[in-house]
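Bug #77: duplicate submission created two jobs. Keeping one. Sequence:
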Amino acid sequence: MALEIILAIILVLNVIFAVTIVFFERRNPTAALAWLVVLFSLPSIGFVLYLLFGQNYTRQKMFVVKREEDRRFLQEVFLEQYREFADPHYRFSTPEAEEFRETIFLLLQNNRAFLTGGNRVDLYTRGKDKFDALFAAIRGARHHIHLEYFVINNDELGRAVVHALAEKAREGVEVRLLFDAMGTRAGGGSRKAFSELTDAGGEIGVFFPSVYRVNYRNHRKIAVIDGTVGFIGGFNIGDDYLGKGPLGPWRDTAFRITGRAVQLLQLRFFLDWHYVTGEYPGPGPRSQYFPDPGDRGTTPVQVVSGGPDTRWNPIKEGYIKLINSARESVYIQTPYFVPDDSVTDALRIAALSGVDVRVMIPCKPDHPFVYWASLSFIGDLLDAGVRAYTYDDGFLHAKTIVVDGKAGSVGSANWDVRSFRLNFEANAFFYDAAVGAELARAFEEDLVVSTEITLESYRARPRRVRMKESVSRLFSPLG
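Kept job's structure:
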């Protein structure tokens, strides 16, 4: 009798959640159908999975304040640049920016992503080089250090970063460290793990402390030192990112930026810090947090933010616009390749138009379901002439695109539904042949240690692999 009551309660819960999905949530129809399949094909655990992964009824309410603050801070500058770029006689400072002016205008309009010039961009593909540069910038800090990372593990590297920050805090430097509650706790991090920093006078902010919710995580990786040096990319903070974890050698990508784009990274940090703590670190854009960086280089950069607080999917749409603008080549690296139809169609059309489209994913999974789903979506594109590779020299965690060796993006956003719709992300879009050539060259060097997934080898995959792909693909739209 008790079992019957429990089963009846579970059935009622599933029906309630099904009604919520259909009538009260503005979901993508594919995602809605996927959740209905979960609720009624796995009735005993479907509602639990939905509670953990699926709810978005609070999405608009949770982030309305954040969205309003973003708009208030950005509106004035946006209108000024919008008027400039809308003038058909306006000419950009570099030929690459002029060539990709439609991409620039798109990101300005749908994300308030201002175009900055005068930047120098340094590329890092190995953890040691990136963290050596980060530690050097921390040691040289004179006024403030702002770090925002999804994961800060309580391991050798994580503790070294916290110790370096604490030393600067004891010197009187303002130190603020923002991390995601779920991403960092998974690596052993907690408020206690940062006690050395807080005891020294540094501040920490914990994004979305409700760790039972898998969605709406802050996946950004940003660092700003003295308002003059910034970092953005795919590296979190932990031994894994130095190649010392169970996945072996680590291949990732990050930018070190000096120049005017650092102000945009600073503003992004300010807005996220305010959302978490209710405070802004500085009085305004003329403070020591926004010093005049001068012209450190010639690379035009836009910092593009995506997340559940944005109406559209700006990073995804920037990816698509870059693909559609390609004339010669599109090189993509991502650990998770679970695109929606719009991205798949853009890649397929580019390849069928004669563009050399190549996608590189890892050879090993850190999330098996996502890995098998990635192979499934790769298989869909092979017929159209897209070339695909598995990176064999460790784990590939880079999130990049470079088009025609002239423009592209590096940041935290994977090529999957979670990055496009559910997580807070930040990417740097650049328009510079020198940076593009360096990123394309890194991709081509990786081909030497990669295996191509040919149409013949894909069709010959074992039946068990086909089954894993089918099941994983079925649940890939969930979110």
